[in-house]
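Example protein was shown:

_____
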Amino acid sequence: MLLRVIGIGPGSPRQITLEAVDAIGATDVFFLLDKGSRTSELTALREKFLTEYGAPGHRVVAIADPPRDRRPDDYEAEVRRWHAARVDAVRAAVSEHLRPGETGGFLVWGDPALYDSTLRILDQLAARDDVFVEVEVIAGVTSASALTAAHGIVAHGIGEPILTTTGRRLSATPAGADANQIVMLDSDLAFRETAAPDDLVYWGAYLGTEHEILVSGRVADVTAEIEEKRARARERLGWIMDIYLLQKAR
C-alpha cells in the first residue's frame, strides 16, 4: 500500500507547495490524528486544504490521538510508549478504511522530517505488518524558514553553523554550537535560563496565519513582552505553535 506523508507548511494556506497540492489531489483517504477540541482550528485548516485540493470522493478518517504525559520522569520512554500507541491506532484505521489499490495520506505541519513523528510511526507500522508499505514524502515549508522570512533576517552570520533543537535540550547545547539556535517545542521559553541579556531573540507564533505574532530584540529588552503575548494568545485561542531563533551577541 502507498501512504503519502505530505508537508503542508506552518499554517498559512499560501505556504502550501504545488507539489503538496498535487499529492493531495492524488490521494484517496486522509488519516488525521485528532487531538480534540483544543486544536479544532488546526483541524479545520487541514480540512480546508482537503476541500480545496482533494479529489472528488476522497475520504477523511479521524484517529483519536492517544493520551500522553507531557511531564514524565523518563521523557524518552514516554515518547516511545506514545509512539507505540499511535502505531496501533494508525494500523487499525488503515486496515479498516484503506481499500486495495487506494492511496492513504497524512498531512503534516511544516516539514515531515523536522520534529514530527509521522515517519517514525509509519516505519514501525511497516516493520510490524506482513503487508508491504511504501511511503512517499512531500517536503513542506518549515516553521524555521517561515520565522526568518517573517522577520526578514538571515538565520546565521557568514559561514556560521545553525543548531536546531528543542526547549528541553537548549541547556545542553555544546560549547561553540550556540551562535545560532533555532528552538522548537519549547513550552517554557527555556532561553530565559540560558541566554545572556545581550543575546538576540527572534520569536514568532502562529506563523503565516491571521493570528501571527512577532517579537524581536535583545533578550533583556523583549523577554517580558514575549511572555505576555504568548500567555494572552494561548489563553485566547487555547493552543499555541511558536518558535524562535536565538543568536549570541556579537
The chain has a mean pLDDT of 91. The first strand starts at residue 2 and ends at 7. The beta strands are 2-7, 29-34, 59-64, 103-108, 134-138, 163-166, 180-184, 200-205, 213-218, 242-247. Helices lie at 18-25, 40-53, 75-97, 118-128, 143-151, 191-194, 219-237.
